[in-house]
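Design request, tokens follow.
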């Protein structure tokens, strides 16, 4: 136990030192991808031989269906592909022996499996995962929407219920952008960025990792390092869950849906200033979305959008001595160039 504590302290020190000087955003994304791919390959290598497992399917019309799958390789989506195209296109998450399970996460033992959709009699778990995934997509757009010389620090994504009217993503932008007020065109640009990712139908790849791996992934973000430690402490297995969508690696507090293409109507509705904090000017980006299977008429959508523009109130999370972002030298004129890249 003492050795583990010492190792944890050393890991935090090394990670904090790396975060002190943040390289360009493209370099950060490349390193995160490399660490993710390396750990993914290591975990797959734990199953050098093909071993068969039995998967008992549950759900309407599937009770009694037995599939023989490959341990450590087959996923719930693989099981769906042995059923019908309907199961492949409409499945969002799975229940594996009663545990919520991402569709792309490999199965490691014989189990019972139930595929979940948006049209289940009780879609609560699916709706929560969808809202969380929409917020993850918004964070991905924000991280890449600005020019490379502007830092973007994604904070811990607030968990808000679907009844809040909007999903949200808290962010601290570069101090050079403190005077920037998002216009309607800025919001439309962010929306176009999200719609491009939706059109690509990218998978959210899950990867359960130990804290040292996650700390290496987020070695250039003190905020994410603290989030890793917090989530690991609250995890029964002492692990954290990473997801990769395209070249974007994120830390999630819960399961995400299978792919971006499950989103249909999607709009970034507002970016609110929350005031100055230890990290800088806190902002809350918000949005509204409905999945492909639950589209709304444009008049209904307009009313939902008006509600989604209002600030979503989230109880503040107290932290001890939160870190500061690296200093940045402001340009001679903050408004000399538009902050958003063209989408």
């Amino acid at each position: 136990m003492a050795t583990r504590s010492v190792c944890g302290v050393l890991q935090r020190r090394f990670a904090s030192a790396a975060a002190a000087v943040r390289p360009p955003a493209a370099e950060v994304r490349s390193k995160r991808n490399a660490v993710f791919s390396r750990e993914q390959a290591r975990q797959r290598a734990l199953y050098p031989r093909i071993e068969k497992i039995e998967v008992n399917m549950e759900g309407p019309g599937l009770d009694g269906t037995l599939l023989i799958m490959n341990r450590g390789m087959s996923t719930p989506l693989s099981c769906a592909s042995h059923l019908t195209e309907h199961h492949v296109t409409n499945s969002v998450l799975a229940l594996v022996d009663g545990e919520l399970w991402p569709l792309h996460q490999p199965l490691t033992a014989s189990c019972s499996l139930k595929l979940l959709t948006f049209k289940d009699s009780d879609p609560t778990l699916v709706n929560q995962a969808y809202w969380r995934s929409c917020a993850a997509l918004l964070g991905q757009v924000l991280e890449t929407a600005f020019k490379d010389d502007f830092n973007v620090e994604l904070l811990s994504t607030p968990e808000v219920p679907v009844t809040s009217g909007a999903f949200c993503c808290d962010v601290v932008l570069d101090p050079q952008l403190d005077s920037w007020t998002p216009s309607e065109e800025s919001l439309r640009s962010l929306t176009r960025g999200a719609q491009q990712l939706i059109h690509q139908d990218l998978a959210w790849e899950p990867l359960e990792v130990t804290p040292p791996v996650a700390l290496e992934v987020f070695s250039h973000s003190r905020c994410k390092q603290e989030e890793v430690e917090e989530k690991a402490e609250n995890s029964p297995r002492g692990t954290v869950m990473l997801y990769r969508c395209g070249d974007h690696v994120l830390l999630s507090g819960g399961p995400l849906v299978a792919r971006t293409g499950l989103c249909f109507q999607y709009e970034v509705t507002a970016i609110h200033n929350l005031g100055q904090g230890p990290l800088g000017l806190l902002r809350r980006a918000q949005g509204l979305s409905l999945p492909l299977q639950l589209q709304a008429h444009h008049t209904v959508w307009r009313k939902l959008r008006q509600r989604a523009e209002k600030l979503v109130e989230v109880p503040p999370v107290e932290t001890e001595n939160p870190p500061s972002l690296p200093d940045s030298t402001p340009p001679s004129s903050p408004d000399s160039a538009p902050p958003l890249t063209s989408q």
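Comment from the thread starter after seeing the answer: thanks! The radius of gyration is 21 Å.
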